[in-house]
Amino acid sequence: MSGIARRSLNAGVAAVEFALLSPFLVLLMVGIGDFSFAYRGQTELASALAAGARYAFTQGQTESGSTLTTDVTNFVTKISAVPLSSVTTSYNNNDPTNCYCVSGSPATFTAAACGSNCSTAAGGATAGQYVSISGSFSYTALFPLDQVFFGNPYTQAVTARLK
User: Fold this and answer.
1) Which residues contact 67 (CB under 8 A, 6 or more apart)?
2) Where are the alpha helices (DSSP H) in the chain?
3) Which of 41, 43, 69, 103 could bridge 89 with an S-S bond, Cβ 3.0-4.6 Å?
């Protein structure tokens, strides 16, 4: 068989291989895109909550209670780059008169006398007043099959000491 005939047979094989592999390559690229969009959304959520904690700290020096929680919730919702499903803000474990020690993740509040030392589990800090902010968003995947991996609501929480 001549070299020309052999090359034309090989060209057909390459086209068939490409036709068989291209759907998998497209699925792989769409999956990478879904992952990157979902990760970006989770990062934007964390950034919005961190900004909300900074806002709560500055406003918490002059505001407290429901005024502060409403302001922080509105602030986080407004600055978020992703559409949030929910934002919940809690001032001092919904008890504005007491002080607390906070430990763990998610945060666990333990009532303590204001100014007293917290346990080493709580970081050994002094008991104080806190704001907890939690938020979530749902990502809709580009490819329906990816909804299994990336479709769950993403939730984050942050706690900031005010006083």
Assistant:
1) none
2) 3-59, 65-79, 147-150
3) 69
Tens place of pLDDT per residue across the chain (163 aa): 555 556 666 667 878 888 899 999 988 888 888 888 888 888 888 889 899 899 988 887 777 777 888 888 888 888 887 788 788 888 877 777 788 888 777 777 888 888 788 876 556 678 888 888 888 888 877 777 767 776 678 888 888 888 7
pTM over 0.90: no
**Contact status, residue 69 vs residue 144, Cβ threshold 8 Å:** no
Task: Provide CB contacts within 8 A for 35, sequence distance 6+.
Answer: 149, 150
Supply the DSSP string of 42-67, one letter for each residue.
HHHHHHHHHHHHHHHHHHTTT--HHH
